[in-house]
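Morning run. Coffee first, then this:
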Amino acid sequence: QNEVTKEPKIDDEWLTALGSFRVIHIQQDPASTIWKCQLRKV
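And here it is:
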């Protein structure tokens, strides 16, 4: 779980303590409070 400052986009790359990941799918809950992002390690 991570905090984001901007809306995530497909093909964004995230650097974490576990390595670098690319966003491949994004879904938002109906209340627009939570983003669910599917990531792939690059």
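The radius of gyration is 10 Å. Good start to the day.
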